[in-house]
Amino acid sequence: METQNNRTELLKKIKDEIFAGEHLPLYKERLKNKVFPVIGEGSHYAKIIFIGEAPGKNEAQTGKPFCGASGKILDQLLESIGIPRGEVYVTNIVKDRPPMNRDPSPDEVQTYGPYLDRQLEIIQPRVIATLGRFSMVYIMNKFGLNSQLESISRMHGRIFEAETAHGRVKVIPLYHPAVAVYNSNMKDELKKDFEVLKRFK
Fold first, then answer.
1. What are phi and psi of 39, to 5 degrees?
2. d(C-alpha 30, C-alpha 177), whole Å
3. How far apart are CA 94 and CA 65, in angstroms?
4. Which domains does the chain have, with CATH numbers?
5. What confidence tens digit (pLDDT) does each residue in 2-40 have?
6. What is the pTM of this model?
7. Which GO terms describe its biological process (predicted)?
């Protein structure tokens, strides 16, 4: 029978591999800047997992996902639908910060992606909420939903269904909270989209 410790152990194994991952494309960058990889945080039994693209500066300095301005917005959005952050799991596709916060490269997404795949297999969420374009494309492709891919402005807030080894999951593309840092209209849009998650609490 699976135990909490089993999931914790398996997730710790991923963390240890990433910390030691000299083969990773951003490993040298991490050492040079004396920062941390950002593995993920939250409940190992989360019904909802949020996936961003890559850590920003604050995240790399602390090793915690979504702890800067975007993180504050994510916390507010979760609060608005009555879901404590501790009940969800939050991570990124790419676990190290790309230099100058540039977009992750296809090679980086391909190299770090399998770690995310394993996190999904271990946590077995009912809902995968992608934050931003990169994680939306990665997850839609992973679950064979690529034929339904459109721009995020058309996809956000919609619910897609996918089959996984642990049963059916809902995939819900959302804007990345960063879009709302300087644009309150986008925050209203995000709030509206987050309402969709309420039914999966």
1. -85, -50
2. 24
3. 11
4. 4-200 (3.40.470.10)
5. 556 799 999 999 999 999 999 999 999 999 999 999 999
6. 0.95
7. DNA repair
